[in-house]
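BACKBONE STRUCTURE TOKENS:
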Amino acid sequence: MMNKHVSIIVLNWNDWKDTLECLKSLYQIDYPNYYVIILDNGSRDNSLESIKDYLAGNMVVHSDFFEYTSENKPISILEYTNYEVETGGGREKEIADLPSNEKLILIKNDKNYGFAEGNNIGIRYAMNVLNPEYILLLNNDTIVDKNFLSELVSVAEADESIGFAGPKVYYYDFQGRKDVISVAGIDLFMGKGAFHRIGATEIDRGQYDETRSVDYLEGSCLLIKRPVLDEIGLLNGDYFAYWEETDLCLRGAKAGYKSVYAPKSKIWHKVSSSSIGLTKLYYMTRNRLWFIRDNASARDQAHFLIYFFAYQFWLDMGVYLRRQDFARLNIFLKGVRDGIMPRHR
């Protein structure tokens, strides 16, 4: 099991401080066979310079979760543009013999491709060049437990029908606590286009310590078997951000692959630190409508349309009007309009 190669894909966008803390936790895990791939999604700050400084050993990273060490510095880097990796990379032999915690692949995207296509660039590169058994999508604003990956792979290997595995996710800091659950798998209600984050805001007292199948898993940390992606394709780049992991897990379920929550695997998530406000409202609104159109049965689509346009739409409209929040009202209406209009590919 420990010989299964995992390509870990971390997307950075103007958020190098979180990325460095995430990287430091990754390089302390007990799993021996992985590549870390950082994709910088067209950052406009000094992300690239800061990441390189850290890898060279010139920057100390402070965290409540670990002690900084320079034992694995400098970390060897392969740098590519997104255009170079789309044509195959080619310099991997330079770092192939190094331990997993002493090497990194940095892909510099020429613009912000969003979460979906930004990750897809890394997935395609990994699948075409590194040939992993697993792809792990990991948000840059997370901290991982030492054995999080070993536990994920162990659960995924237990059953051929498991296509996706996800950890117990804690809030990075919830009113000063580190033991408050953010999500322990997700239930989906197609007729309302709604979801329930299992365990959210509950103190962990062992109530979600059972491995089990769930409707889908959060994209902040999602382990995916390679054959699943070969069969169903990658993230839907049209979504840009939000609902794309839901869409992926549902497509996997239709192909017979289960999403399984692995409670012994643990991470801590800062939760949407890089995407707030009107942009999130737009994509959450538009992509919710797209997701139902793409994945729901005719019956569930009918239920959703009745629920949304007879109730949810007017409820949200009323909230924005009462608050006189016309900026959010306009973005919400734009999201609804774009969600129901035909997509142009």
